[in-house]
Amino acid sequence: VAAAPAPVVEAGLKHKLERKWTFWCDNQSKPKQGAAWGTSLRKVYTFDTVEEFWCLYDQIFKPSKLQNNADFHLFKTGVEPKWEDPECANGGKWTVTSNIGRKANLDNMWLETLMALIGEQFEDAEDICGVVASVRQWQDKLSLWTKTAANEAAQMSIGRKWKEIIDVNDKITYNFHDDSRTKGAT
């Protein structure tokens, strides 16, 4: 029996993602007095292939490399990581905090979340806006932003799946963006 010839892989072949994603960075470590929130938010790069994602991730996007009071964001292209964005305005966020062994743990949870997002691993993917990694002095956190906070079934499905993806047994919290706006929280 003759062996089947090995498939030829084209050198320039790119693996397209289901949708485009945009990386953002926000460094609030040295805020300008009186500056409105979001003035330091910068769009870094939009990508739509697996290869572009890995190039970006390998070069710069590890939260453990951030200074305190800085954030990395990965959001669907066309959605800004702001409560005011129409896609986010009626949404909320699932949040997990990282304290013990936090830098390595944060990097791992971040990577697992990014791969799940770009790989469309969430059943309710249409209800997800993006994810934010926030580095602070005493604890770091990841927040998975959703667009329809009132859709409890979708939120619970997303929360359960995310806990599984990032391998967290602890409680994670969900907050409506409206509640956060009222409290003035970030």
TrEMBL record:
One of its GO terms (biological process) is regulation of translation. GO terms for cellular component: eukaryotic translation initiation factor 4F complex; nucleus. InterPro entries: TIF_eIF4e-like, TIF_eIF_4E, TIF_eIF_4E_CS. It comes from the Eukaryota. Keywords: Cytoplasm, Disulfide bond, Host-virus interaction, Initiation factor, Plant defense, Protein biosynthesis, RNA-binding, Translation regulation. Gene3D superfamilies: RNA Cap, Translation Initiation Factor Eif4e. GO terms for molecular function: RNA 7-methylguanosine cap binding; translation initiation factor activity. Pfam families: IF4E (PF01652). EIF4F is a multi-subunit complex, the composition of which varies with external and internal environmental conditions. It is composed of at least EIF4A, EIF4E and EIF4G. EIF4E is also known to interact with other partners. In higher plants two isoforms of EIF4F have been identified, named isoform EIF4F and isoform EIF(iso)4F. Isoform EIF4F has subunits p220 and p26, whereas isoform EIF(iso)4F has subunits p82 and p28. (Microbial infection) Susceptibility host factor required for viral infection by recruiting viral RNAs to the host ribosomal complex via an interaction with viral genome-linked protein (VPg). Belongs to the eukaryotic initiation factor 4E family. This is Eukaryotic translation initiation factor isoform 4E. The lineage of its organism: Eukaryota, Viridiplantae, Streptophyta, Embryophyta, Tracheophyta. The gene is eIFiso4E.
